[in-house]
Amino acid sequence: MFYRPETGHGLPHNPFNAIIAPRPVGWISTRGSDGDNLAPYSFFNAIAYVPPQVMFASTTAKSDRPGMKDTLAHIAETGVFCVNIASAALIDQMNASSAALPAGVSEFEVAGIDAADCTTIDCPRVAASPASLECRATRVQRLPGDANWLVIGTVTGVHLRDDCIQDGRFDLQKDGWLARMGYRDYAAVHDIFELERPE
C-alpha cells in the first residue's frame, strides 16, 4: 500500500500516529492568569542533552481558545511549563486530565490530582509523577495546519521521585513507562534490555 497524505489513505482510521510509536507522553502543566492547567501530549520528546531540552506539539484547538489550547495560551503568557512523566501507574489520572474543560477550570481539581510547586518557575507540577521537568520556553512556533504548534523548552529543574532511583539510575520498571501507540492504544513498558554500541 502507498498513499499520499493530501489525497487520503482510504482506511477506516488514520495510520500516521500508529506508525511512529511508541511515543512517550508529556503531561504538561501550566499556570496562567486564569488558573492552572494540565494536559497530556503524545507528540513529545527530549531533543538535546546539554543544555537539556524538550519539545512537544499541540495539534488541536478549543472552542473557547481559537486556534490553540489552554496550554499554549498559558505558555504564551508566562513563557514556562512543566513536563510531568506519566507512568503506567498514573494512566487513569492522565486520561482524566485530557478532558476538554473550559478555560480556567483546573484539571488538577477535576481529576483529583495532587499538585506541588515547581522550584525554578511559577508553575504547578504533578506531585505523584515519577519525574517532572521544569522548563522555560525557547520557541513557540506555528506549524502548517489549523491548530498545529511546536513548543521547545530548556529544562531548568528536575524532580525525581526517590523510589524511582534504583542503583543510581532513574527506573520506572515498577510503575511502567507509559507510551502512546496510536489510535486509542497505549503500552505499559516493564521489560527492558541493554544494548552496547559498537566500538
From TrEMBL:
One of its GO terms (molecular function) is FMN binding. Residues 18-172 form the Flavin reductase like domain. InterPro entries: Flavin_Rdtase-like_dom, Split_barrel_FMN-bd. Pfam families: Flavin_Reduct. Transmembrane segments: none annotated. This is Flavin reductase family protein.
